[in-house]
């Protein structure tokens, strides 16, 4: 039962934005858009390390953005997969950023991250600023993989195995620099779910 729930993700699918949420900023993308290779909106978030992290600081590397929350069972099942990925691909080639959307922030996220020995930077976004910039989330976990120029290559809804991410990351590490004219072979054209 837990595995089925973990595979589906937390929060389920949502077709309309709830009325209480403001519209995303102008630079926001639509996570459900069929167009890929859109620039990942830049953001600045505080990490558990006490440093400010900007998405643009990682240009030149493939980036995996994983939006999660401590209450999400599926997110918890995915963290060991991301830890394994971190051990296999050097940080100089792949930046993995875990973005916690827990409203309680540092007080709840730090002990959780330490308990699970998260091997990659954990950023705090209690006001969901970055999630709004990425068009809002349909559920948790939600992962975006960006190429070395900061363009969104693929996105995943629900917990994934390491091999799913590894396929995209290895392709992007071997791909020549994009000239922005066409989608490279294998580029994802829609948000994929583990369901």
Short description:
With 195 residues, this protein is α/β, with parallel strands linked by helices.
Which terms summarize this structure?
195 residues, alpha/beta, Glutaredoxin, eight-stranded mixed beta sheet, 5 helices, 8 strands, disordered C terminus
Tally of separate domains:
1
The largest sheet is:
8 strands, mixed
User: Number of DSSP strands?
Assistant: 8
Straight-line N-to-C gap: 14 Å
Mean pLDDT across every amino acid position: 79
Order of adjacent strands in the largest pleated sheet: 2-1-5-4-3-6-7-8
CATH superfamily: Glutaredoxin
* Radius of gyration, taken over Cα atoms and rounded to an integer in Å: 16 Å
User: Could you name the CATH topology?
Assistant: Glutaredoxin
- What is the overall shape? globular
**Beta-strand percent range:** 15-25%
CATH architectural grouping: 3-Layer(aba) Sandwich
Low-confidence runs: 1-7, 12-35, 179-195
Question: Number of helical runs?
Answer: 5
Map the helices and strands.
Elements: H1 2-8, E1 44-47, E2 52-54, E3 62-68, H2 73-88, E4 94-100, H3 106-115, E5 122-124, H4 129-133, E6 142-146, E7 152-157, H5 162-174, E8 192-193
Parallel strand pairs: 3-4, 4-5, 7-8
Antiparallel strand pairs: 1-2, 1-5, 3-6, 6-7
Helix pairs in contact: 1-2
Overview of the molecule:
- This protein is of the alpha/beta class and 195 residues long.
- The protein has one domain: Glutaredoxin (3-Layer(aba) Sandwich), CATH 3.40.30.
- It has helices at residues 2-8, 73-88, 106-115, 129-133, 162-174; strands at residues 44-47, 52-54, 62-68, 94-100, 122-124, 142-146, 152-157, 192-193.
- Strands 2-1-5-4-3-6-7-8 form an 8-stranded mixed sheet, with helices on one face.
- The longest helix is centred in the middle third of the chain and has 16 residues, at 73-88.
- Mean pLDDT is 79; it is low at 1-7, 12-35 and 179-195.
